Structure formats: C-alpha cells, structure tokens
Description:
By secondary structure, the chain is of the alpha/beta class. The chain has helices at about 10-20, 50-65, 80-90, 110-120, 130-140, 160-165, 185-195, 210-215, 235-245, 260-270, 300-310, 315-330, 335-350, and strands at about 1-5, 40-45, 70-75, 95-100, 125-130, 150, 175, 200-205, 205, 210, 225-230, 245-250, 275, 290-295.
Amino acid sequence: MRIYYYHTQDAEHIISEWERGRYPSHLLYGATCFEANGIEIVMHKHRQEHNRLRRMVRVAWQVMRCRERYDVLYGSSHRGLELLIMLRALGIYRHPICIWHHQPITKSRHRLREWVSRLYYRGIDHMFMFSETIAKMSEHSAKCRPERVSVAHWGADIDYYDRFMREHRELRSGFISSGMERRDMPTLIEAFNNTALPLRIFSITNYLGNDYEKIISSIPRRENITVTFNNRLMINELTAEVNRSACVVICCQPTNYTVGLTTVVEALALGLPIICSRNPQMPMNIEAEGCGLLVDYGDTEGWERAIRFIAEHPGEAKRMGERGRELAEKTYNIDRCTREMAEAMKAMIRK
C-alpha cells in the first residue's frame, strides 16, 4: 500500500531533524513508522503559505499533478486540504481521503453553512480522532458517519525519549509549564505565588489569539516563578528543560478538544508526574491511571493543593511518573498509533 502523505509543516526537514535525534517523530503523525507497517509514502513538498485560499489551491494543484501512484491521501489535518476534500465530495478527485480531525464535529448555526459542510464531510473517507469522547460528541452531528471514524491512540516517540534520558541524566527538581496552546496563566501564576514553590514557565509571545507576553507581564509574580519566551527554542532544547523538572503542570482554558495532550504524552514518556486541568476530551484520565492529578478549570485553590501534594509526597510523585511511563509504553505511543492507522487505511482499500 502507498499513501500520499500531507503535513501542515515541512515534514522532510522534520524527518531530517528526527534522524539526528533532535525531534520526536510523533509530531509527524506516523510518517517515520508507516514503512514498518507495510505502507510506502509519497511525500508532499511543503511550501509555507499563510493565505488560506492560496494554500488550499496550491496544495490541490500539487496533489492532482502528482504522477506517482498512491492509494490514499493521508493528512495530519484538514488545513490546506479543504479544496481537495470538496473535490472528492463532488466526485472529481478520486482517491480516498483520510485525515486527523482535531475537534468534535458540530452543527453550524447557519443553515447554508451547515448544508455546505455536510457536502464537505462527504469528501472525507475516514477520520482519526484523539479520544472516544470527541468521537461520541461528533456522532450527534448529521455530518458524522460513525463507520468512517476511529480513535487512534496518539502518543509519544518512546525511542526519542529513551535516547534523550540516556544522554541527559539530570537531577530533576521543580515544576515546569512548557505548553503554549490555550494556557490559563493567571490561575497558574496565582497558585504558585501562594505556594512559593519553584515554577519555570516556557511560553511563546503570542499564540491563537493569546498574547502571553502581555498577559504574563500584567500578573504580579514572586521570585519563585521564572518566565522564558521560547520563540526560538528548539524542540530538543525544550525537551531538555522538561527532563530536568520534577513535575509537569498543564493549566488550560476550557475547550472542546484535547488541549495539552502533546505536553501530557511527553511527560508520560519521560516518566514525570503531571498536574493537569480537568479536560473531559482527553483520551486518558491521568488521575484514574495514577500518573497525576486533575484540577477543575480556574480552580486556584485546587491547583495549590495539587502543587503542595506533589512537593510534600516525593515518593508518590515518583510512582506517578513510573505509572505514566508504563501507560506510554502500553498504550500512548506512536508505534501503536501508526499500527491502528495502518489497519484502518488498509481496510478502506479492501472495501
């Protein structure tokens, strides 16, 4: 079997970084693991394009001009593939399309937009979703056909983190916040101000409408909290910072998708305990699995209790990290995820 592989970033560059040990392959959504599952790849040639319309036209033109044989068009996201998906719905583009759908499928409030989107979703032959909760939420929409949806256990590149820990044997201490999407900085900083325990925040100046530089600078913070805006920090450099921390904290704003999941799977692979906002869309319940603590959105006092528990119970925190690592090895890793994706795409072709 052969797939046309589409990624929203420059996958060829990322693969070269992965080969040098500087990038975890799970952020490529299976590109480095498909061969082991009997799938060859036709690689999309990436070109950065910020204008959405120009991007989808250019991508469609490039894909439809491809002279290499392939069975399925596989995308890590629909972004950039919108025109091709519509052409597939209209019967013009003939290859099955399989994508990762990052959010629940919902009904539009506008009748015309809902009609157009129903047509659009006919052009997606299969969707991978991150959790059973998101898949169940999507079933309430007429656009979702359950037989075209499967949940894949997206997780970390275990080999990358194993190699990293062998080469960087750090004494772990303190707490770290390393994510950038929909983070609730006011709640997190207030909780650590009140506990006076060490927190290192690695953020980005602006992301998805959140001006973190402005938000963080407007909050009084004690000397136990340090902030670094990591716009230029490489993935492996950020991994090094996480690896020398004793606990990963993921304080998020309410959303309807798996905000914080990338940070969670990294912490699991590194064997670190986690404190995380209680996001019901997450594929795992870290508290029930015994690998961390969950706190309700905006609950500053709850965050204070969780932070103090980790600091005052180092033995249990260590066991949380060990249980998290076991969960990563068993379930949430890119090898298992790619096997599941490969089985679903091969089943599409057999139909």
